[in-house]
Design goal:
Radius of gyration: 21 Å
CATH class of the largest domain: Mainly Alpha
Shape: elongated
Largest sheet: none
CATH architecture of the largest domain: Orthogonal Bundle
Number of strands: 0
Strand content: under 5%
Helix content: over 70%
Number of helices: 9
């Protein structure tokens, strides 16, 4: 999309011209996807779903609510929608179990062992769920071995704060697991 052609494209999309609307939504999907790639704790399918959600929100009301008139303003608007959507998704806790289940060792043919592993995972998730939301995010990010510099970028929190919050969260989770008989 050419920046100088953006005002005509925007007005065409708002007027309901299919080709303009299609081009603008294709552009929005690309912007969203690129913005969501920095959320490395999200699986590719989750990023794809979130990018689609941005396009849906734009079609429902976001296109009409967009107050800008230039391509850079559009890109910033769509990027902010994608980032806010990812942060909301993570804060709702929808992603934690996905992150955790990814850590599971491949299941063997022993149903008793598999049931025990699932129960241990459920107990771990319960222990983590009592932490404040930011501490949960930090715990799961470190569990996935996300580097501190990426956590700083994604969360907007200083590295020292992340490190101390992770250590405290790990200690609380360890204590909780010991209380329920896991260690």
């Amino acid at each position: 999309m050419q920046d100088e052609a953006f005002p005509d494209l925007l007005s065409g999309a708002r007027a309901g011209r299919p080709e303009a609307l299609s081009e603008l939504m294709h552009d929005a999907a690309g912007i969203s996807w690129r913005a969501l790639t920095r959320f490395r704790t999200l699986a590719e399918a989750q990023r794809e779903d979130l990018a689609h959600d941005v396009v849906i929100r734009l079609l429902e009301r976001g296109l009409q609510q967009f107050a800008g008139s230039t391509a850079p303003e559009w890109r910033a608007y769509v990027k902010r929608m994608a980032v806010n959507g990812a942060i909301s998704f993570m804060r709702r806790g929808d992603w934690e179990m996905t992150v955790f289940w990814d850590l599971e060792s491949p299941a063997d043919d022993d149903p008793t062992r598999e049931a025990q592993e699932r129960e241990a995972m459920r107990l771990l998730a319960d222990c983590v769920s009592v932490l404040p939301v930011l501490d949960q995010e930090i715990f799961w990010m470190r569990t996935r071995e996300l580097p501190y510099n990426e956590m700083v970028e994604q969360l907007g929190v200083p590295q020292g704060t992340i490190a101390s919050k992770y250590n405290r969260a790990r200690d609380k989770v360890t204590n909780c697991l010991e209380e329920v008989g896991l260690s």
